[in-house]
Design goal:
This protein has one domain. The chain is about 75% helix and about 0% strand. It is built from 4 helices and no strands. The longest helix has about 45 residues. The radius of gyration is 29 Å and the shape is elongated. It starts with 7 loop residues before the first helix and ends in an 11-residue tail after the last helix.
C-alpha cells in the first residue's frame, strides 16, 4: 500500500502553534479561508459568489477605496496630533503670560477661571 505524501503546505499548517490572542486566531482562520478559496478556484469548484468576491478585491474601484480609507485614517491621525499641539501651545501661551505678569509686578492668572 502506498503511503500518502503530506504536502509542505500541510506540514506548515500542522506545525503552526495555536494562536494566543483573539486577533491572532482570527488571522489564522482568515488565512485558512483564503487558502480554501484559492484551492476551490484552482480546482474549478468555487461558487460564483466566491469568484465575484475576489474579482471585486482586484478591481480599480476597490483599490481606490482602499487608498481613500488610508487617506482618511492619516487625516484623522493628523487632526488628533493637531489637537494635542494646540493644547501644548495654549499651555505655552499661558506660561508666557504669567511670566510677563510676574515680571511687571502682578501675580499670575489662575487657569481655574476658564
Amino acid at each position: 500500500m502506498a503511503t500518502r505524501r503530506v504536502s509542505t503546505q500541510d506540514q506548515v499548517a500542522s506545525r503552526r502553534p495555536p494562536a494566543t490572542t483573539p486577533e491572532a486566531r482570527e488571522n489564522q482562520v482568515i488565512a485558512k479561508a483564503f487558502d480554501l478559496a484559492e484551492k476551490r478556484i484552482q480546482e474549478g469548484t468555487a461558487s460564483a459568489q466566491e469568484i465575484v468576491h475576489f474579482l471585486k478585491l482586484g478591481s480599480t474601484r476597490e483599490q481606490l477605496e482602499q487608498r481613500r480609507l488610508e487617506t482618511d485614517i492619516r487625516l484623522a491621525e493628523a487632526k488628533v496630533e493637531s489637537m494635542g499641539d494646540a493644547k501644548k501651545n495654549e499651555a505655552l501661551y499661558q506660561e508666557a503670560l504669567n511670566a510677563m505678569r510676574a515680571y511687571s509686578g502682578h501675580g499670575p492668572i489662575d487657569s481655574d477661571d476658564d
